[in-house]
Design brief:
Elements lengths: L2 H8 L4 H4 L1 H24 L2 H55 L1 H14 L5 H11 L2 H11 L10 H17 L4 H4 L4 H27 L3 H28 L1
């Protein structure tokens, strides 16, 4: 039996659940990054949008979108790979310590079990079994001493790709009115509406995957986007006013 596949199937762990952090992380940053370009030019007032035009907004927006998506995706890949390397290094150290410092490692296991409510003969029996299986002992210590679980092979590649694709898929939405030739006077409102819709979708995805209340997820996601968009707008206004 493929235990990992069984666990995912039996407990309803979908691809959305498994990649939720990267989807929310990449999608939220993609929306905010691109809308910040639009809001920044809008904050500069009519002069700013008139001087640059829709084509320039698209160029600036797409340049930011793809550069930041690549940066975020590669950053997530490197971060995940670093986490994997740290896990493997610490796990090897735990196996070494178990073989050279068996008594002290056994005391650590008993202390962890006592914290979990298992003590006395049951804890000692559990520790006895672990002593016969160094690999299992190492996994136990990694989880309960360091709070780390074993990463899957290739996980860092999928994490990076998910972040990259989510950034692009959500980040392009604030630029849609400029692609479709919406009048400059209405472009900011339409872009803001597209951004709010994207943030709403992101909040609903988060709620669906985590089981949290929909209202809470949506409000939190919208607030982050609104704050970042407002900051970009104010910066544009201050620069042009100065």
């Amino acid at each position: 039996m493929d235990l990992k596949a069984h666990i995912k199937s039996a407990h309803g762990i979908s691809a959305l659940n498994a990649r939720l952090r990267q989807i929310v992380y990449g999608g939220n940053d993609g929306i905010v990054t691109t809308f910040a370009v639009v809001a920044g030019f809008a904050g500069a007032g009519a002069e700013g949008t008139a001087q640059i035009g829709a084509v320039a907004v698209i160029l600036f927006g797409l340049a930011n979108l793809f550069a930041d998506a690549a940066s975020m995706g590669l950053g997530e890949y490197l971060s995940s790979r670093a986490e994997r390397d740290v896990y493997r290094k610490n796990r090897r150290e735990e196996i070494r310590r178990f073989r050279t410092e068996t008594v002290s490692e056994r005391k650590e296991v008993l202390a962890i079990l006592a914290e979990k409510g298992l003590s006395g003969s049951d804890a000692r029996a559990f520790a006895d079994q672990l002593e016969h299986h160094p690999e299992l002992m190492a996994d136990f210590m990694m989880l309960y001493e360091f709070g780390l679980s074993a990463p899957e092979d290739g996980e860092e590649v999928w994490n990076g790709l998910t972040t990259f694709i989510s950034f692009l898929a959500f980040g392009v939405l604030p630029l849609l009115p400029f692609f479709f030739g919406v009048a400059e006077a209405d472009a900011l409102a339409v872009s803001a509406g597209s951004s709010l819709g994207a943030l709403l979708l992101l909040g609903l995805l988060r709620a669906q995957a985590t089981g949290e209340r929909h209202l809470r997820c949506v409000v939190e996601t919208l607030l982050v986007g609104l704050v970042c968009g407002a900051v970009a707008y104010v910066v544009g206004w201050v620069v042009m006013s100065g």
